[in-house]
Every structure is written in C-alpha cells, then in structure tokens.
Amino acid sequence: MENNQSLSMVDLAYRKIKEEIETFRLQPGQRLIIRELSERFDIGHTPIKQALNRLVSEGLIDVFPNKGMAVKQLTWNSYLSNVEARRMVELYAVPYAIREARENPAFLPLMQANFQTHRDAFVTSATDASIENYLKIADIEADFHHTIVRTCKNQKILDFYATLGQSIYILYYTFALNVQIRLKHSLEEHQALLRALAEFDADGLYKATNLHIDNTIAHVKKHSFIFYRGDTI
Question: Distance between CA 53 and CA 47 in Å, rounded?
Fold first, then answer.
C-alpha cells in the first residue's frame, strides 16, 4: 500500500513539473531545486527527485555535474537535432507500421480514432486558443507518432525515441506566429500519413513522413519567436 502511494506521488510530481515546463511557468534554463519544488507542489523530496530523473530521461531537463538540474534550454540546434533524430526513427518504423496495418485488424481503427480526436481538437482550436487546447493537440499528435514507432517492437529504439523530448519540441510551433495555419497543415499531413497506412503504401508513408517533418521545421524556422538570439535560424 505504501509503495503504491509512493508511486502515485511520483506520477503526480511528474505531471505537475512537466506541465510547468510545457506552459513555460518553469522557464528554459531555470534551475530546479528539489526543496523549492517540494514546497511548491506540497510533495516530498523523494517523489520530486524521481520525477525529475524521469524528465531527464525524456530530454526535458538537463543535468549539470556539481551544479544540479535545469529546464532544457530551447535552441535551434537542439531542436533540429531532435527533429532529425525523430525523422530517422519514424522512417525506420515505416515497414513495420505497414505490416502492422496489414496484419493487425485493430491497428487502423486505433489510428483513425486518433485522427478523429485530432480533427475535433483542431475544430475546437478555432474558438479556443488556450494553451491547454494546444497542449491537447500536441499530445494527440505525439501519440499518433508513438503508435507508429511502437510497431517496430524494439525497446532500445523506443527508449531512444522517448528521450527526444518530443512533446516540448512540438510546442515550439505552438508558441510561434501563425499557429492556426500550422495546426491546419499538420492535420492534413496526419491525414496523408493515415491514408498511406490504410492503403499499405510504404513509399507514400515515407514521403508523407518526410513532408510532415520538413514542413514542421520550415514553420518553426520562419515563425518561432522563442529561440534565443544567439541561435542561427
């Protein structure tokens, strides 16, 4: 019972800290002090420490030897490195996803349900420009891609993919100009990905994956205002 309670407090600490990072209440580069976070969230030191370690593994927090932890800095180079690593993994997963679509009757309905949820959230975004709704869309998009990557059934690759900190990098365009245009295009690109899966079209899925990532990079490069001036964009 005590162990279950401890685990639930770790999950609670993880969700609270992650939300603070995603909504920029904890700023990029800000030092994270366990005692302060413990007081802020009224959660013990041990669950806070375990939650921070989990966020380190997801790439949202940096560790500096003898200096502690800090929210990951948002830089163009780190963004581009993560997105290109994401491209590598998602392209690797293409043949596995096509096979899953052919052989697993539950796979395509799962992807279609995700797309429908994505479309509903996009419609809502026309009248609800809150950060909460954009975070919801980011999570839906991330789940779509994670579901594709999981078809490779390679735990080392899945662990690596999880370290890319995809959720916060999706947020880069959430805090950019012309957000609604990008959300519309991203929805259309997800539809193309889904169509390729439904048609068992590996070449189409390769092309749709590359286009989706290229367009995301181009939008961030053109419109994002949260990168530091020292970065070359």
Answer: 10
State the chain's mean pLDDT as an integer: 86
- CA–CA separation, 116 and 32 (whole Å): 38
CB neighbourhood size of 37 (10 A): 22
Residues 67 and 84 in one domain: no
**Domain, as residue range, for 40:** 9-71
Mean pLDDT value of segment 49-53:
95
Residue 125 within a domain: yes
Confirm if 151 and 96 have CB atoms less than 8 A apart: yes
Question: pLDDT tens for residues 90-128?
Answer: 999 999 999 999 999 999 999 999 999 999 999 998 888
Our count of domains for the chain comes to: 2
Q: CATH number of the domain at 54, please.
A: 1.10.10.10
